[in-house]
């Protein structure tokens, strides 16, 4: 008989996968949600390297700007850059896709460090099987699920979304790009009204959040 695992509480320690760090706005959404929940953000040098390698490869960031931004990222996000000590835990997360195994192993290393459940935040849910990780004390979620789980009402979500934009704008003003890429110069404007937010959330895979925001008052 298979064991039915109940819905876990959202932990207070969140390891961010590279695909969550990749989006400038999603980073700041994680900061806003962490403040709301009293949580701490973490990532590793391996995760950070994967994020910035892809940002440069896809023309999102100039290599010089990527180097400067990466150096100050933990401080800007009030996050913890963990040591790269995941290897002893790789055997415990064999059911995770091989290319993502270092992420789960790093989350498990953090789980042993803090002696509490750890949230693993990623967009690649299919590569991180829920039940095996939950048995290890790892709660894997995507940003969309996290937002809806923490912010139950439309008003709370809208407040947090506005905070994420304020944080993002402040961060960009504090450290503006010195070598803007074509992608940055053509970036769509940030949402200005309710309908803008619904479309923006849809483009950013935040479909459950958009559904809550679309409910009538």
Topology:
Elements: E1 13-16, H1 18-21, H2 24-37, E2 40-43, H3 45-57, H4 63-76, E3 79-81, H5 101-114, E4 118-121, H6 130-135, E5 138-141, H7 143-150, H8 154-174, H9 182-185, H10 194-203, H11 207-214
Parallel strand pairs: 1-2, 1-4, 2-3, 4-5
Helix pairs in contact: 2-7, 2-8, 3-4, 7-11, 8-11, 10-11
Features:
53% helix; alpha/beta; 217 residues
Overview of the molecule:
There is one protein chain. This protein is of the alpha/beta class and 217 residues long. Helices cover 53% and strands 9% of the residues. The protein is built from 11 helices and 5 strands; from the N terminus they run E-H-H-E-H-H-E-H-E-H-E-H-H-H-H-H. It has helices at residues 18-21, 24-37, 45-57, 63-76, 101-114, 130-135, 143-150, 154-174, 182-185, 194-203, 207-214; strands at residues 13-16, 40-43, 79-81, 118-121, 138-141. Strands 3-2-1-4-5 form a 5-stranded parallel beta sheet, sandwiched between helices. Strand 4 (118-121), helix 6 (130-135) and strand 5 form a beta-alpha-beta unit. Helix 2 (24-37) runs parallel beside helix 7, helix 7 (143-150) packs parallel to helix 11 and helix 10 runs antiparallel to helix 11 (207-214). The protein starts with 12 loop residues before the first strand and ends with a helix.
């Amino acid at each position: 008989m298979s064991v039915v695992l109940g819905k876990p509480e959202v932990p207070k320690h969140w390891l961010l996968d590279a695909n969550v760090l990749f989006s400038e706005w999603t980073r700041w959404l994680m900061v806003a949600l962490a403040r709301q929940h009293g949580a701490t953000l973490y990532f590793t040098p391996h995760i950070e390297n994967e994020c910035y390698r892809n940002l440069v490869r896809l023309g999102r960031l100039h290599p010089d700007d990527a180097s400067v931004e990466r150096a100050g990222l933990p401080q800007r996000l009030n996050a913890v850059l963990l040591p790269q000590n995941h290897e002893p835990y790789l055997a415990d997360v064999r059911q995770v896709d091989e290319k993502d195994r270092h992420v789960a192993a790093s989350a498990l290393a953090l789980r042993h460090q803090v002696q509490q459940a750890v949230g693993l935040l990623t967009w690649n849910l299919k590569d991180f099987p829920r039940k095996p990780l939950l048995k290890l004390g790892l709660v894997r979620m995507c940003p969309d699920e996290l937002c809806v789980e923490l912010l139950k009402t439309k008003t709370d979500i809208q407040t947090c979304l506005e905070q994420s934009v304020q944080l993002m704008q402040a961060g960009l003003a504090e450290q503006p790009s010195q070598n803007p890429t074509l992608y940055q110069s053509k970036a769509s404007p940030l949402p200005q009204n309710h309908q803008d937010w619904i479309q923006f959330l849809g483009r950013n895979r935040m479909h459950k959040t958009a559904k809550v925001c679309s409910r009538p008052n």
